[in-house]
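Risk register update: the risk of archive-format incompatibility is retired. Evidence:
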Amino acid sequence: MAQLFVGTSGWAYPTWKPDFYPAKLAQKKFLGHYAMQLNTVEVNFTFRQLVKETTVQNWIEQTPPSFRFGVKAHQVITHLKRLKGTEDFVPRFLATIELLANAGKLGPVLFQLPPNLKANAELLKDFLALLPRSLPAAFEFRNESWFTESTWELLKSRGTALCVAETEERTTPDAVTGSFVYYRFRKPTYTEEERRGMVGRIGEHLAAGRDVFAYFKHEETPEGALYAVSLLQEVNKIGLS
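Archived output:
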């Protein structure tokens, strides 16, 4: 049965007290409390630094077996090398999250491309060939030149998901290219109508047998986390997950 995983991009925000975290909860207990309400988180600091083994082990110990960590790929891969000449760094990066994979807690690895990287089919094809077939990978394209059927077909050829990102400036086409679906809901606020639309879209994917990962924007205020809790509850209430 397909599963829905909903969370936010990060969890270590004291300003989420008292609406999401209890007022007196110590920060070292944030992840454990978060994992009682949501079942995935998108780790963004891996974009700037390679995560330590001890840190990953702590994550594993503080979360239940069903919890998943989505991980943003390091900037060396996506922004500095821009997917080219990454044969050495990709395995190095993946080795840092191998513990998560071995524990069954690795969610999708997000490759977020810079806005000024325009479509290049050969570049994408060559890079996809570097990734292990078993890796649950998703790509977020932030230049609209990528929004073509040829891009979707390349992703499909490797079973790779398209990250559907919704921002105030741009929304990625809602195309299905992998065995799972990846949403990044990045608007600061969402109306009730928009959130009902999320439930409908997610329900269609789950009914088709596709797992769904959905992440709300992390902010200094707890709205994203509260949206995530509400979405997970609404889908579960109507028995879609």
